[in-house]
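Side project, low priority. Logging it here so it doesn't get lost.
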Amino acid sequence: SGISGDRSCVVLNDIHIDIMDYIVPASCTDTEFRKMWAEFEWENKVSVQTNISDMNLYLDHILGCTNMKCLTPKQALSGDCGFLAANMYAKSVFGEDALANISIEQLPDTGALSGHIRIRQKAKVWRCLSETR
């Protein structure tokens, strides 16, 4: 068929892939989370910059944007202490793990949220998670 000189061409610019379609919330035990956290080599630390002033709403926003599951029990996130820390976990459909830890506080003078989200993986595969705020 190559003899006739006909060529087929696929324009790759028209193909759009959203990596979030391949990430699903997942569960693991505290022990498994800590073990993976210690083993994973790649980490990205993202500063929190948001107009959201409620810490639990911000956590829900991050969980929705990243397709991650919050592993920290709801009762541990309740109360009004001005601080929130939670562990999150997701897995790709290809079996790759992504861990995250959010640590934020509400500044008493302005009410704004301040803190960081740390994302860990075996390798620098899911950088897009750190770009989702």
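Brief comment: The two ends are 50 Å apart (CA to CA).
Revisit when time allows.
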